[in-house]
Design a protein that fits this description.
The chain is α+β, with helices and mostly antiparallel strands. About 25% of the residues lie in helices and about 30% in strands. A hairpin with a 4-residue loop joins strand 19 and strand 20. It is globular and about 65 Å long. The structure holds guanosine-5'-diphosphate. Guanosine-5'-diphosphate (GDP) binds next to helix 1.
């Protein structure tokens, strides 16, 4: 079996979670458009077919129809798992949250936290999903970044820490100051491609200094070394600061906050960097529990390594216009080649894996094998339903079953 170049630490399985209308679709589309234009499949990962992206005009019409869509950013593979935004799909949201490692929570910067964002937030809390927040719609009348951040404290009890501050607001929204780099990101064109990184505008220098101080103080809570430097008023490197922010985020005790306007294309690059810098890879995740398929008794914890037996969870089934029934699964351990057989331990049925594919916004990328950490679409499964465990043929393990969720009551 050919080794993949892309190691597990370079994978991010994330969801974009939001109150309906906050801009989840627009933000996702901008991410796919931007990453798609910057990358050709095949150049990062081995064992994949080289395919061309559609011409730019067609890319503009990107829609996310897949349960998991793959994008590349700075030599990382980002799998974006679709999470339904409507409260009626609570069970589906929970299922999606189980298979992802981190999330971007999108809010409307004019209203901040809304009742439905509370519901998804509490579901993400339940599964300890590390999150970053994105205050979208900074171009909208009434948009107010710091008020919106405050609603995360008041309504969610979260610990939001701005990593950027906006330059302008409403019709004058121009970009952001990044408080780690202490640089301004200014967008010059409507397609989001043309932006420059410049010095901080004079009138924002003071507040940027003040907010950077707050950021360091918040991050230092999670890193003793940083705390000592901070107290001793010594120089702090960007790498040290980022590492402390990452610790707090993975601990589920700090939420890095960004802002922008997905609609006006002033948004995406800093958020993509944040996904890479702060959200976990499959290696950062706690082991998954496996149970006996007969008795339901706990058997062992599953480490995300390809040396263990194959174990995966089917989390979504879709009908694809080209390949028919497509079952999306998250692989928790081991690896699997196309053409091989697996046991659906939930149903006690043997199934054949005919084809394996990563879905991009506009292409299918066929692969010969998948391994722990991957999220992939499978062709060929006949009897597998969502929530079923797929395992190696001699296995008698099932993964944690999805409990029927308790109703989430939102308090405002
Ligand atoms: P979703 O329901 O969360 O997926 O939200 P959509 O992405 O469909 O966006 C909902 C509405 O908000 C649409 O009319 C979008 O055009 C609009 N919208 C999305 N992003 C922005 C933004 O950055 N600024 C403004 N003003 N409107 C936006």
């Amino acid at each position: 079996m050919k080794e993949r170049k892309l190691t597990l630490d370079k994978i991010r399985n994330i969801g974009i979670i939001a109150h309906i209308d906050a801009g989840k679709t627009t933000t996702t589309e901008r991410i796919l458009y931007y990453t798609g234009s910057k990358h050709k499949i095949g150049s990062v990962d081995d064992g994949t077919a080289e395919m061309d992206w559609m011409e730019q005009e067609k890319e503009r019409g990107i829609t996310i129809t897949s349960a998991a869509t793959t994008a590349f950013w700075k030599d990382h593979r980002i799998n974006i798992i679709d999470t339904p935004g409507h409260v009626d799909f609570t069970v589906e949201v929970e299922r999606a949250l189980r298979v992802l490692d981190g999330a971007v929570a999108v809010f409307d910067a004019q209203v901040g936290v809304e009742p439905q964002s509370e519901t998804v937030w509490r579901q993400a809390d339940k599964y300890s999903v590390p999150r970053i927040a994105f205050m979208n719609k900074m171009d909208k009348i009434g948009a107010n970044f710091f008020n919106a951040v405050q609603t995360m404290i008041d309504k969610l009890g979260a610990n939001p820490v701005p990593i950027v501050i906006p330059i302008g607001a409403e019709a004058d929204f121009k970009g952001v100051v990044n408080l780690i780099e202490m640089k301004a990101y200014l967008w010059n064109s409507d397609d989001g491609m043309d932006f420059e990184i410049t010095d901080i505008p004079e009138d924002l220098k003071e507040i940027a200094e003040e907010k950077r101080e707050d950021l360091i103080a918040a991050a230092a809570e999670f890193d003793e070394e940083l705390m000592e430097l901070y107290i001793g008023e010594e120089e702090i490197s960007n790498a040290q600061l980022k590492s402390a922010i990452r610790k707090g985020t993975l601990d589920n005790n700090l939420i890095p906050v960004y802002c922008g306007s997905a609609f006006k294309n002033k948004a995406v690059q800093p958020v993509l960097d944040a996904i890479i810098d702060f959200l976990p890879s499959p290696l950062d995740m706690p082991p998954v529990k496996a149970f006996d398929e007969q008795t339901g008794e706990f058997i062992k914890e599953i480490e995300p390594t390809k040396n263990e037996d194959f174990l995966a969870l089917a989390f979504k089934i879709m009908v694809d216009p080209y390949v028919g029934k497509l079952t999306f699964m998250r692989v928790y351990s081991g690896s699997l080649e196309k053409g091989s057989y697996v046991l659906n331990t939930t149903k006690g049925k043997k199934e054949r894996i005919s084809r394996l594919m990563f879905m991009h916004s506009d292409k299918r990328e066929e692969v010969d094998y998948v391994r722990a950490g991957d999220i992939v679409g499978v062709v060929g499964l006949k009897d597998t339903a969502t929530g079923d465990t797929l395992a190696s043929e001699n296995s008698d393990l099932i993964l944690e079953k999805l409990e029927f969720p308790e109703p989430v009551i939102s308090v405002s």
